[in-house]
Design brief:
Helix content is about 70%, strand content about 0%. It starts with a helix and ends with a helix. By secondary structure, it is an all-alpha fold. Strand 1 and strand 2 form a beta hairpin. The protein has one domain. Strands 1-2 form a two-stranded antiparallel ribbon.
């Protein structure tokens, strides 16, 4: 306990707290700007930390990490443009809330959910990290594939009243994920002889196009007279919600945080998936699932609790196994190695002080980000007072820049514009965009683990069904898909019958 408190004292009463504060502020700004992400923020600041002491460098990078993930809710709420992939699901209900004048309330809910999710994942990080990491590493490709298939069935939940359109959207996302070199054998697919497409489609340009550019196109098509600013109620008491609402959403927040922690632990997935999965589970468990996507605060609670909880989850495999949980922790891993620190099982014995620095940076960073966002909560909605023709022009420039710097290729900008058109067309036909993104993100993991599993078994598929955990996930996937298909069929049958009776 003495070294732990010593590190805490050194951080709070020394220069590290200033670096943490600077990092958190930069992270919030980067997260709020569509096209930028926490990964990009850490990548940009990583060279600056080379000359710092480890405690200062780690503090700054952790501040950027926490601020970048949480800051995405600002543009997601006010502009329907997720600042980061972790805030995609936040747009589904936070933006409709802003449209009806509840922008400050939506921000208050998102900020609070982010803090709670972060605190719960901090508890998981410091208490059960070794145990969870050992359990995760024992899972083979059979279990990972089945788990991914189960996650893909959540497409049905995200389909917002039309399972068939949702499944079609998800399949479209899987199709786009197949572009480029195939994993394992490196076969080119759907490249059409294009060298640029060989690298595949980038996640960031796709997200910017689907959720940002499509919104700009839709606003332009509506006409200048409909580009009015939203009404904003800045007279909000406290955080915009009552304590009773927080208590009422307690189970939703806890469930979403656990989902965020669990998905964060799985290498390579992270917050871009956890917020969608948590949102889908919240919708499934809600007494009013039909209100999701129309401004239901439950969706905001779920999404923001999950994406911040995934931070602590992603740190667990990085620290205990030396395996990054997402893109940001991959950057942090590189930063630690540059400083001569090798994450892994021996880190807790050989460099316990580094472990404590990460612990306290995460906790203090979450609190600082919360306080900064609280102070700015009532000023953020003033962005909406800017005429959209000016605001969207600026955002389009930022979107272009964000897409370009993603891979320093002009081709990424064309990809962004293409998916902006795709998103616009799909929403014109009431096809949800969430399933497309979920399919795009999860498809590569499913394919990689399926191929590895088949290679390991020599072409035998029976282990998928004979291994208990794998069989469990596949059974849950089938049951969930059948349940929602039957529910959809009955809903259509009931509505058809009601229409017929009305006609008579």
């Amino acid at each position: 306990m003495e070294p732990l408190m010593q590190i805490f004292t050194e951080m709070v009463f020394g220069t590290p707290i200033l670096y943490l504060l600077i990092g958190a502020a930069i992270g919030i700004i980067i997260g709020a700007l569509p096209g930028l992400s926490a990964t990009m923020g850490v990548a940009l600041l990583l060279p600056l930390t080379f000359g710092m002491e480890p405690i200062e460098g780690i503090s700054m990078l952790m501040g950027v990490y926490v601020g970048g993930v949480s800051g995405g809710l600002i543009s997601a709420t006010l502009l329907r443009m997720p600042g980061t992939p972790s805030s995609v699901a936040t747009t589904f209900d936070a933006y409709p809330m802003a449209q009806r004048g509840e922008a400050a309330r939506a921000l208050g809910i998102g900020i609070t959910a982010s803090l709670i999710g972060g605190l719960l994942s901090f508890v998981a990080l410091v208490t059960i990290a070794p145990m969870i990491a050992r359990a995760a590493v024992k899972l083979s490709s059979f279990e990972f594939f089945s788990l991914t298939v189960f996650a893909l069935t959540l497409i049905a939940v995200l389909s917002q009243g039309n399972v068939f359109k949702g499944v079609a959207s998800g399949l479209l996302g899987i199709l786009f994920a197949c572009v480029g070199f195939a994993p394992i054998d490196g076969t080119q697919r759907f490249t059409f002889g294009s060298l640029e497409l060989s690298a595949g489609i980038g996640l960031l340009p796709l997200i910017i196009g689907l959720f940002a550019v499509s919104e700009i196109l839709r606003t332009i098509v509506k006409g200048e007279e409909k580009m009015e600013t939203l009404k904003v109620n800045l007279r909000v008491r406290g955080l915009g919600f009552r304590l009773a609402e927080l208590i009422q959403n307690g189970w939703n927040i806890l469930r979403s945080s656990v989902i965020g922690i669990a998905i964060g632990i799985l290498p390579g997935i992270g917050g871009s998936v956890s917020n969608l999965v948590a949102y889908a589970q919240a919708k499934q468990a809600s007494k009013k699932p039909e209100t999701f996507g129309k401004g239901n605060p439950e969706g905001v609670w779920a999404s923001e609790a999950a994406n911040n909880a995934s931070i602590g989850g992603a740190l667990i495999p990085m620290m205990t196994l030396g395996i990054p949980g997402d893109g940001v922790t991959a950057m942090l891993l590189g930063g630690l190695i540059i400083h001569g620190i090798q994450p892994g099982p021996l880190l807790f014995k050989s460099n316990a002080d580094i472990v404590y620095i990460v612990y306290w940076s995460f906790l203090l960073g979450s609190i600082l980000v919360f306080l900064m966002q609280i102070f700015g909560m009532r000023t953020f909605p003033l962005i909406l007072s800017i005429p959209k023709r000016f605001l969207y022009s600026i955002l389009l420039v930022l979107a272009v820049v964000g897409s370009y710097v993603n891979d320093n290729r002009l081709f990424e900008v064309w990809v962004m514009l293409f998916f902006g058109l795709v998103g616009f067309i799909l929403e014109e036909f009431d096809v949800p965009l969430g399933p497309l993104l979920l399919g795009f993100v999860l498809a590569p993991y499913a394919e990689v683990h399926f191929r590895r599993a088949v290679m390991y078994s020599g072409g035998d598929l029976t282990p998928f069904l004979t291994r208990p955990i794998s069989a469990l996930f596949l059974a849950l996937a089938v049951l969930m898909l059948v349940y929602f298909l039957v529910k959809e069929f009955r809903s259509r049958k009931t509505s058809g019958g009601a229409t017929a009776n009305g006609a008579v």
